[in-house]
């Protein structure tokens, strides 16, 4: 029988599962406490559960963790972590320190199906969406004792590999775990989800009422240009997207972040700035300008610094909060649009099957870590 990953489950799911096994309701909270407050990665660690119960649960449940394959540090302090999933796929997570803040940038998919022309993640297409556990574990891997010493975070952005709303269930369930009292208890105001604008999903995301911040990648002021650089615009043109943004439920003082990747001579002209001001009417927003991080195989260029400055000034002069987001971690390809899963290893399974835990101390693992975790997954599937 396939084992269920505890980190994929909501409190209620665990309670139902335990009730079926004739266990009292409080056991579900007890399990979550072990998984999220004490970072237990094995049922055997949950010492206040009776041993026979642990044995029985072990036949149905396990706790997944990510395997760290590689870690790189930028000259600006940004760090990039390449994690291996149980099936051998790889994802990247970025840690961005800035002043007294430190932001974790999580991935929601292996690759991406949306196909934005300026983004490296798009180039491999979509391999698969992440399970909630695989999203949550990116955050938890910075909290697991003894694993990543000294790394604390203040904010989480869903801006890594993938389109969060194309993995709607994975994203929503992960956010519930991250924000629940029984989970990680992180304030939703410290979480931002960025989307390329899947409008129907955006509406559903609003109805899910998660109270997190929303960022929308607009990136153009005319449908012709947006369709050229973001094919999703054919399905959901600018006006449709902005109407959904205006209808999106916001708390008092909460604003939508409109992201705008600046491409030289494509969307960085004064005419664009003027149109952008008009488009923003009636929308509680701030604008993040992202000068393109140039990537191989893409015909677009980064604008000149003066152009970026002029663009920002125009917005500011017309009463719009506009920030230029400095690229972080470009030297280690950790900046926006530069994330791309590494090639899947083709080596044969050689590792001893073992629990797929993150190595300690953090060190380059090479491909072996992947092989080991895949072997562990195979073992799990064979159990029961
Ligand atoms: N898929 C989501 C979130 C991940 S991309 C989205 O598109 O919103 C996060 C941000 O990086 C988006 O605003 C996107 O427009 C931006 N981005 C993508 N490629 C980039 C590049 N090469 N340079 C600068 N920003 C880029
Ligand atoms: Fe996907 Fe976002 Fe990259 Fe577009 S910018 S391809 S939606 S990750």
- Taking the alpha carbons of the first and last residues, their distance comes to 5 Å
**Quick one: how many beta strands?**
14
Helix/sheet category: alpha/beta
**Shape, principal axes of CA atoms:** elongated
Beta-strand content estimate:
15-25%
Helical residues, percent:
25-40%
Number of DSSP helical runs: 12
Main sheet? 10 strands, mixed
Mean pLDDT: 87
What molecules are bound to this protein?
A: S-adenosyl-L-homocysteine, iron/sulfur cluster
List unreliable stretches of 5+ residues: 343-369, 371-384
Question: What does this protein structure show overall?
Answer:
With 384 residues, the chain is an alpha/beta fold. The protein has helices spanning 11-20, 26-37, 51-58, 132-140, 168-179, 199-207, 223-229, 232-235, 238-247, 270-279, 305-317, 368-382; strands at residues 4-5, 61-62, 67-73, 79-84, 90-98, 101-105, 109-111, 126-129, 155-158, 191-195, 213-217, 256-262, 285-291, 322-324. It has 12 helices and 14 strands. Strands 3-4-5-6-9-10-11-12-13-14 form a 10-stranded mixed β-sheet, with helices on both faces. A two-stranded parallel ribbon has the order 1-2. It starts with a strand and ends with a helix. Residues 343-369 and 371-384 have low confidence and may be disordered. Bound molecules: S-adenosyl-L-homocysteine and iron/sulfur cluster. S-adenosyl-L-homocysteine is lined by residues 118-119, 159, 163, 194-196, 217, 219, 259, 261, 290, 292-293, 295, 336-337.
């Amino acid at each position: 029988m396939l084992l269920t990953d505890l980190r994929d489950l909501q409190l209620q799911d665990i309670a139902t599962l335990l009730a079926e096994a004739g266990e009292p309701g409080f056991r579900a909270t007890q399990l979550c406490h072990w998984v999220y407050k004490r970072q237990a990665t094995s049922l055997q660690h949950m010492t206040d559960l009776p041993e026979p119960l642990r044995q029985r649960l072990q036949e149905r449940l396990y706790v997944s963790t990510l395997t760290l394959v590689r870690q790189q540090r930028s000259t600006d302090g940004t760090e990039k972590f390449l994690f291996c999933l149980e099936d051998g796929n790889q994802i990247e997570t970025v840690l961005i320190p800035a002043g007294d803040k430190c932001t974790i940038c999580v991935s929601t998919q292996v690759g991406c199906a949306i196909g934005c022309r300026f983004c490296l993640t798009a180039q491999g297409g979509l391999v698969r969406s992440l399970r909630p556990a695989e999203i949550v574990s990116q955050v938890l891997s910075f909290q697991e004792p003894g694993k990543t010493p000294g790394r604390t975070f203040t904010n989480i952005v869903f801006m890594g590999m993938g389109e969060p709303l194309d993995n709607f269930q994975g994203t929503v369930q992960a956010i519930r775990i991250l924000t629940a009292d029984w989970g990680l208890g992180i304030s939703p105001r410290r979480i931002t989800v960025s989307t390329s604008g899947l409008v129907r999903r955006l509406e559903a995301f609003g109805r899910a009422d998660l109270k997190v911040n929303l960022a929308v990648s607009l990136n153009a002021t005319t449908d012709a240009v947006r369709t050229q650089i973001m094919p999703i615009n054919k399905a959901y043109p600018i006006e449709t997207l902005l109407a959904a943004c205006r209808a999106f439920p916001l708390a008092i003082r909460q604003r939508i972040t409109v992201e705008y990747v600046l491409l030289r001579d494509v969307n960085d002209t004064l005419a664009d700035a003027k149109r952008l001001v008009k488009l923003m009417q009636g929308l509680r927003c701030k604008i993040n300008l992202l000068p393109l991080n140039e990537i191989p195989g893409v015909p677009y260029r980064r604008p000149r610094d003066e152009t970026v400055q002029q663009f920002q000034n125009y917005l500011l002069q017309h009463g719009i909060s506009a920030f230029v987001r400095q690229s972080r971690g470009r030297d280690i390809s950790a900046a926006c649009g530069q994330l791309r899963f590494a090639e899947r290893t083709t080596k044969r399974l050689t590792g001893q099957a073992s629990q797929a835990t993150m190595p300690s101390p953090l060190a380059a693992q090479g491909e072996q870590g992947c092989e080991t975790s895949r072997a562990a997954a195979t073992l799990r599937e064979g159990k029961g």
